[in-house]
Amino acid sequence: MSRKYHLSLSSNPMQRTMLTCSVCKKQFTSHANHRDHLNIHNNSRPFICEVCGKQFKNSGSKSNHMRLHDPEKKFVCQICLKSFRWTSSLKAHLDSHAHAILKKEIARHRKRQPAKPICVQTAQSNACVNNH
């Protein structure tokens, strides 16, 4: 492999070969990322879903779309075992559990500390109030 290729993979940022977008000047160290980025600036959608034919500008968008066609829901709630296709859906669902748990905790604490009745009597001193 060429020295130029190895430099592009270097962990030292000063030694990496940078690929620059000719339109927006954004820089990339990966040829694949640079190539995918260029599709943003034109109407090219070279990544096609084999199931429904929908077209995408990058492979990541296509991969995300492919989950719609996959019957398996890989992200499972450990509380109620409901499953989801996306981690974002699972996170939103977990918030509902957190809200329910919080409501139960508030109710439990309210039961523990019953409200004291309000007394309208007046006292002659603080000592009398404390004794009351």
From TrEMBL:
Compartmental location: Nucleus
GO cellular component: nucleus
InterPro entries assigned to the protein according to its UniProt record, in alphabetical order: Znf_C2H2_sf, Znf_C2H2_type
Every C2H2-type domain range: 19-46, 47-74, 75-98
Keywords, comma-separated and alphabetical: Metal-binding, Nucleus, Repeat, Zinc, Zinc-finger
SMART domains: ZnF_C2H2 (SM00355)
Database matches in Gene3D superfamilies: Classic Zinc Finger (3.30.160.60)
GO biological process, alphabetically ordered: negative regulation of transcription by RNA polymerase II
GO molecular function (one): DNA-binding transcription factor activity, RNA polymerase II-specific
One Pfam family named in its UniProt record: zf-C2H2_4
UniProt keyword Nucleus present: yes
PANTHER family, sorted: MYONEURIN, ZINC FINGER PROTEIN
Name of the protein described by the UniProt record: Zinc finger, C2H2 type
Species per Swiss-Prot/TrEMBL record: Trichinella nativa
